[in-house]
Amino acid sequence: MIEGIMIGLYTAFTPTNLLMVLIGCFAGSFIGMLPGLGPVSAIALMIPITYGFDPASGLILMAGVYYGAIFGGSTSAILINAPGVSGAVATAFDGYPMAQRGMAGKALAIAAYSSFIGGTVGAILLLVFVQMLATLSLSFQSADYFALMLFGCTGVVALSAKGQVIKAILMTLLGLMLSTVGEDPSGIQRFTFNIPDLYDGISFLMLSMATFALAEALLSVLRPGAEATTNEHNPANNKLSSLTLTKAESLEIAPTVGRSSLLGFFVGILPGAGATIASFLAYGMERNLASTDKKHEFGKGSARGLAAPETANNAASTGSFVPLLTLGIPGSATTAVMLGALLSYGVQPGPRLYIEHPEVFWSVIISMYLGNIILLILNLPLIPYMSKLLDIPKNLLTPMILFFSLIGVYLVSLNTVDLTMMVVFGVIAVGFRILDFPLAPLLLGFILGGMMEDNLRRALLIWDGSFAFLWQRPMTAVIMSITLLTLAFPLINSLRQRSKNKLITELATNNLHD
Amino acid sequence: MKILDNRDRVGSLLLLVFALFYLAYTFQIPLDPTVSDDYFTPRTLPIGLAIATVVCSVLQLAVSSSSASLSSAIAGHAWKPMVLLTVFMLIYSLLFSFLGFVLASILFLMASFTALGERRLLVSIMVSVGVVLFMWAMLTQLFELYLDSGSLFRLIAGEFHD
Questions:
Q1: B118 → closest Cβ in A224, A395, A430
Q2: Between A and B, how many residue pairs show a Cβ–Cβ distance under 8 A?
Q3: Three-state SS for A282?
Q4: CB A341 within 8 A of CB A149
């Protein structure tokens, strides 16, 4: 392995490859900031450019683009509440409220530091455990994946305010129902009403932009009073706020970053799980671990709430290279595009990759770490300029956010029907926000719906239609137990609190009558 | 109708109605007669989801908070600019293919700036034209992405070509 690392270092540290990482990170950050252009699009855009390169240089450039695009996506999630990629949705929960409170600089700095540490821990784990992890990821079966998806859905408990657990579950179910629109895995049309534009289902990007960016922009117009305290009229917002974290802040997020790095990486190595589930699970874990006082800060600009998903999604992105490099299985859409690129170079990923092309295998791993360092060096000085976006007057900024969101969705589908649907979903999202129903669980359900159904179908086929896998398969049973416990406690607490409140109200009314 | 002046109840009722329609439509999903696995059909998950939603909606209706007033939640808001922006977005989506990216986007941005109270025409024009042309140049020239030039443009260009 030492020899391999030396080969990787030698390849990655050539002037050409260093330049590749630099260009990749810069281009990725820039592309990722545009709603709609996430890591997949960014890497796809790079493939034609890298055709003439040797495989190591091409992959190093793409790894840089990958990390850059993830960081860029977080930037737009924090500054304008527009998570263009699913992995950045959880980042918006606390990142955007922090920016609204005049701490955009600090939020971006926390994101940069957390991403760096998450990526670094991921790269080190990848370097040391790559072969062992490949075997572990293979031991996961459909039943375990289904249980994992269910566990991912329990993230709603973390995404719901006190006493709103049932509402959060309802919104998750709505998201799951929306995910069933379109062609099912056996090729049968469901809920498409013979409308061709629905055959491929509802687009994630469209739903994400509608429920977050569009709804938030429309609500800021609808409630100008609330906005006045948080936007340009707020003197605190005109300042960027410090980019450096205080000792107390660093100490507060340090355990979060450590936990989320490990969680993110291990979730990331599971093919199909990826950065999105990792970020939601890390967010949920931190909220559940937080003390009662700190728990209230989640969703309102908690540093821990921002650090957890940012760390986890970067660590998971690194983890997703494990099945790609060692088994030839793309764990995510992005690594699927990279697999295509590798094949076009004549490189076949899989168990023999690091025997036949050690320079490719190890230089990619080394360049991942290099990419993280360059991203930190590159992005920290740019934060003051990125934050200037919030200084634009609201009557100009809001239409521009709407415009970028609409164009982001159009660029992916090139279909104007998606734009019309996006407006309709945006208005529905505003309605739910007014009714005080949380939207994040809807998106979570939507993201997990397809994968959940696929794995349930496979598990039932393997187990001859019996649900016994839920308790008879040890790995599944463990995940299911954690899931049930995570769901049951807040639900019981919520119902108990409600009956307690009711009793107090009745007693107070009786006292008044007496 | 005071019983409906409650955000939790209205939200739960809307979801309950949606779930019932969803459930009714679930039985119209065709089944593939050649598929042998009866354990899991295209209807299985939708039926489960619909039933779960009905149960949860009823549960939420039963425990809905009495203090969540709907009328106070919708009163005193700036509905006019929000409705105008929504209408402009709908018009933008409908006219995009006809006017093309550049023209439709410039008009959308100018109209939206005005709806939100921007009275300086020069600022509106400069910002909208600047932003749209920058995006157009970056997306089409730098990234070589396709943006619809619009049937109006193609019609005019065709006329000149002839």
A1: A395
A2: 171
A3: helix
A4: no
* Among A161, A213, A123, A189, CA closest to A400: A213
Distance linking the first and last C-alpha atoms of chain A: 82
Identify the bridge partners of residue A183 per DSSP, sorted by sequence position: A189
Look up the pTM and report it: 0.76
Range of the domain at B49: 2-74
CB contact (8 A) between residue A400 and residue B31 = no
Domain match, B157 and B85 both? yes
**B89 & B138 share domain:** yes
ipTM over the 0.85 cut-off: yes
Per-residue pLDDT at A163: 65
Residue A500: how many CB atoms within 10 A of its CB?
A: 10
CB proximity B38 to A under 8 Å: yes
Burial classification of residue B28, based on how many CB atoms lie within 10 Å of its CB (0-12 exposed, 13-18 middle, 19 or more buried): exposed
Three-state SS annotation for B53-100: HHHHHHHHHHHCCCCCCHHHHHCCCCHHHHHHHHHHHHHHHHHHHHHH
Shortest CA distance from A450: residue in chain B = B45
Low-confidence ranges of chain A (pLDDT < 50): 227-238
Whole-angstrom Cα Rg for chain A: 23
Residues B44 and B66 in one domain: yes
- Give the span between the Cα atoms of A100 and A390, in whole angstroms: 9
The Cα angle at residue A266 between residues A66 and A339, in degrees rounded to 5: 40
Contact A176, A452 (CB under 8 A): yes
pLDDT of residue A237: 47
- Provide the domain count of chain B: 2
Pair (B13, B61) in one structural domain: yes
For CA atoms B20, B25, B26, B27, the dihedral sign is positive
Q: Are A364 and A322 in contact (CB under 8 A)?
A: no
Tens of pLDDT, residue by residue over A264-319, are: 888 887 765 577 778 888 888 888 888 877 777 888 888 899 999 999 988 888 88
Residue type at B44? T
Q: Residue A183 has what DSSP assignment?
A: E
Give the number of other CB atoms < 10 A from CB of residue A200: 13
Report pLDDT for A22: 86
Asked if A371 and A21 touch (Cβ cutoff 8 Å), the reply is yes
